[in-house]
Automatic annotation (TrEMBL):
Keyword vocabulary terms for this entry: DNA-binding, Transcription, Transcription regulation
Species of provenance: Gryllotalpicola reticulitermitis
Residue ranges the UniProt entry marks as DNA-binding: 26-45
Domain HTH tetR-type: 3-63
Tree of life domain: Bacteria
Transcription regulation is among the record's keywords: yes
UniProt keyword annotation of Cell division present: no
The protein's name in its UniProt record: TetR/AcrR family transcriptional regulator
Pfam families documented for this protein: TetR_C_13_2, TetR_N
Length: 186
């Protein structure tokens, strides 16, 4: 039962970070989102907010890595579409209210432990995407750079989509990334 409360709190924090970032996520928000008893915060997270946020980043990382590795993409174009699709589903499914929880933390947190963990998450994603691209025949010397471009362009597009309340920026970025995945220079 206690593990369920902790897990609910971490899952709720991921959702809250995707909407409001680090400073827009309070313990009161987490309790309201998850129905967890107030006393459970310091029981499960004696290190305070940073400990909870790091746990949320770890969950967001694991969820994204699972989505990236469970796909059946056999081409670089398929890897791009899989990654873009993950963000399109999030944006549309939340009516543009949520973006990337890791980005939300990165642009708003000011504690070293949280920023270091966010950097690790982005490194994990980059490494996984680069490996997936190499599996599809992408040149190893270019896979890491393209993985970085894929993440950075998509994250920027997600921010723009939230502001515009439209997937149009994501679709524009997707078209450019698809052209690059096909070997065309943009």
């Amino acid at each position: 039962m206690a593990g369920d409360v902790r897990q609910r709190m971490v899952e709720g924090t991921v959702r809250l970070l995707a909407r409001g970032g680090y400073h827009g996520t309070s313990f009161a928000d987490v309790i309201g989102q998850t129905g967890a008893p107030r006393g459970s915060i310091y029981h499960h997270f004696p290190g305070g907010k940073d400990e909870l946020v790091v746990a949320a980043l770890e969950l967001a990382d694991a969820q994204a890595l699972t989505a990236l590795t469970n796909g059946d993409a056999t081409t670089a174009l398929g890897v791009v579409d899989q990654f873009i699709g993950m963000w399109r589903r999030l944006l549309v499914g939340t009516q543009f209210e949520a973006g990337c929880s890791v980005l939300g933390v990165t642009v708003s947190a000011d504690t070293e432990v949280v920023l270091d963990r966010a950097a690790e998450v982005f490194r994990d994603w980059r490494g996984t995407l680069a490996a997936r691209l190499e599996e599809t025949g992408f040149e190893a010397s270019e896979a890491g750079g393209f993985a970085t471009l894929l993440i950075a362009a998509t994250e920027g597009a997600v921010v723009m989509c939230r502001a515009a309340r439209s997937v149009e920026p994501l679709e524009t970025v997707a078209d450019e990334l698809r052209a690059r995945a096909r070997g065309e220079r943009c």
